[in-house]
Protein 1
Amino acid sequence: MDTFEPLRASHDDGVTGTIPAKEGRGVFLRRGQVLMVINTHGSQVVDTWAFNSTDLREFMSMEHSRASMLKITPGVGDALVTNRRRPILRVVADTSLGVHDTLIAACDRYRYQELGAAPDHANCSDNLTSVLHELGCERFDAPCPLNLFMNVKSDGGRVEFLPPVSKPGQSISLRAEMDQVVVMSACPQDITLVNARRPSDVHFRVSSPG
Amino acid sequence: MDTFEPLRASHDDGVTGTIPAKEGRGVFLRRGQVLMVINTHGSQVVDTWAFNSTDLREFMSMEHSRASMLKITPGVGDALVTNRRRPILRVVADTSLGVHDTLIAACDRYRYQELGAAPDHANCSDNLTSVLHELGCERFDAPCPLNLFMNVKSDGGRVEFLPPVSKPGQSISLRAEMDQVVVMSACPQDITLVNARRPSDVHFRVSSPG
């Protein structure tokens, strides 16, 4: 049974944090705050979700965002929108090549089963579930994430997973368009090439306007 | 609060049915049965969802299907998969040009608000919710649908909504890879060009092997 009680936010201005390799972390953002996600060591994909912290039934939706942006991948100035078609995160800066993905599901236990990994292999979907659970919300499935720094090509309708092109220290900055909780997972994929087979820590910084 | 009790199926072999313009209908399929969706008058988009009828937490997922098919759009022989990465529907025939969409959210009350429509404008998301509710399942949001006969171009990362190319009588046939309930909505969009501005009835037929 899913539950969607409003979350108890604990805002701190100027928050910085680490997302250890293969793990997930949540951060609360107030409207106007900017979240910078830093690909500290390069090559690391960060699966990212955002939920309206006063009503978790509203969340960032890739299928609504593509319809709103008229693009597969957001660039500087573009807003990701929720399943209620309201802007939730806007890209305000991007020092990477702008290679991010909106097409592909988060990795999950079923994916690692297919790949023959150990049954307890870490995965982004369970990282999301765990972070939400710690925050007091039960949600059984993962919406399609914004896969920061993930290199997926889809020209001519063919979908291709490619090695990462992100370099150490590159970052993307997302401005909160509503109060929200963002959950990020440093993707544990170490079997395919998506993280160049070496999942690593990433970092984030939250700054406030003015 | 979402609920996911197993559904009480009422299977009938050789079922045929109408999905009236702007409405939604559900149909139970046993593994092996084939659902033919017929674009009776042409130009009509059919938003389509599929749920494992013994556990509605498992459902057809476009973001998992793209990763599995390595394509944006399924063609004959391709299987759509669930959020547990299991095949649920396989395209076994397609007499249309094969133009279908997996990128775009179902229309919803928020979309029609943006378009300035009346507050009670029919929409595919609420059609899904209503059908599931009649079947005894409460679900607050719509997974990304398989948009049969919807013409969305995404070359070069640019997403473009185009007028339909489907002709009267064209059909797609989907084989059930597990017991399931399929929900179809004859998209009520009459403001943009997606249904050539004239939503119309579509029909379906369920056949059993052998």
Protein 2
Amino acid sequence: MAEFEIDPRILSGSEPLARLKLCDARLGNDARWPWIILIPRKPGAREIEHLAPKDRAQLMEEAVIAGHAVRAMGAALGRPVEKLNIGALGNVVPQLHAHVVGRRADDAAWPGPVWNLPGATAYEPAALARAKAAALDLLQSAALKAAS
Amino acid sequence: MAEFEIDPRILSGSEPLARLKLCDARLGNDARWPWIILIPRKPGAREIEHLAPKDRAQLMEEAVIAGHAVRAMGAALGRPVEKLNIGALGNVVPQLHAHVVGRRADDAAWPGPVWNLPGATAYEPAALARAKAAALDLLQSAALKAAS
């Protein structure tokens, strides 16, 4: 069986956050939006249909948890999230992954989508630490709840 | 309880296809991409977290079925789908809805996302009929399987 590895293009644009039941959760390193990327640990999967139905349901639940974490990130950064955007595209990086992004009517792409926009902006170290802590807090309490 | 109604902005850009267990499925009327819109019949829902977990799992299954239907549409139009894009955004129309879109490396937006792009192109009537028949065939056989 092939080993699970995350595509280097995902790795280079994101920071590790947490290992959920199905997915590795990573923080998208673009300070324009609170953003979490979920990568199911299923080597070779490129489309959602490549997951078994129970894993698809789990991906959905992890996307909901990631949505809460994205809201926590937005709040920690002083920019509360007004709308979640969830997408699985894979046009650039074929490895199956899902994006959960926090949007606001005053953000850099509203109301258009965020994907493939030029101008990614690295976080200030202090802001990154705040965003990470807020996301982790939420993801870890969700993981504890799931395990109890 | 509020009645289920589809936002007029969704209605005006799409054609009715089928009533699935959770969602109304509609064909996105933009000939640039085979496209299905799923609208859960849950009045007031704006985010996926507003659905109960079993409905979230059902939405995921209907997105997978819609993906097969989008592939069937692409094949019927002589432009086989190479990648599915699935997204729930709601920045323009807040009513919860999910998009399932068939992409090709030679399409009008590749590798960027399709949402909010100007230039929507109406189908020729014959092509629309072919696309609709191919999608319906798939959606009805999935509905029959689910009921059996």
